[in-house]
Task: structure prediction
Amino acid sequence: MDPVSHTLTGFVLSKTITKHKALIITFLIFSLLPDIDLLLRIHSTELFLNYHRGITHGVMASFLLPLIPAFILRVKTGFFKTYFLAFLAYGMHIFLDFTNQYGIKILSPFDWGSYDLSLTFIIDPYVVLPLLLAVILSIKFKKQAKLFYVLSLIFITIYIGVKAYLKVEARDFLKQKIEAHQYRVYPMPNDFLRWWFVARFSDEYITGCVDLFGKRIYIDSRYKIKNDDLILKSKESESVKSLLNFAKHPAAEIKKEGDTIIVVWRELSYGFLPNDRFTAKVWIKETSQGYKITNTKLKI
Result:
């Protein structure tokens, strides 16, 4: 989820549970703390893609880091109460990120595999707006503030449950219409009833949209699974290595610009996004010594 969603969730949930200012501040900090790994992007996009939502989103961090405010505030607010609220805030952040298709490496540093529910988009108005409305109403109707907070949290819980049901429906409908070896469906921005899909055959990916309202399947693109010399050469690039480490459905295609060859890698689960998001481009020239990588670009 985006920082606004995490901030609003932290504020609403903390105000529902406690009135102590120190605990509310602690809750807000820990509802944002897992995303401290965003600083990795200052170093490089490759490092960010490799390790974002890694250790700071892992089980070990969620148990260890709340010990810090619990120890500092042990006299003022109580060790166990502070620890529980910090742990709850941290865990809520991890759970919300877990609902995105981006996924989290929840078992890192012991296992760097990414896990996800693929139910909500990173910026989801059906999560942000109920929380924002609850905060606005609580300012005008202070006596009913807790009621508004609780109702917004109940709405989000039901919303995520409904998305889980619709995801199963979309996948089942896709399996009826397309015969493939593997099926995956992903949430699309601001939409209940349309889901992006990636279907894999032995030598081909098909991407498109499942429309549950219109009961139709729209095919967007087809990608042949290739493994020729140019594609193998492009895998030497750090940009491609990072994307392949992240991607669930990577596919490469070869383009030519004059005497330069461009290998474009795409993460197909994000194929509905504009502007070539989640792609790695590798520029290759053929020389007397063989193929040589001249430039790379990773875009997320």
Observations:
- The chain has a mean pLDDT of 94.
- The chain has eleven helices and eight strands.
- Residues 145-177 form the longest helix (33 residues).
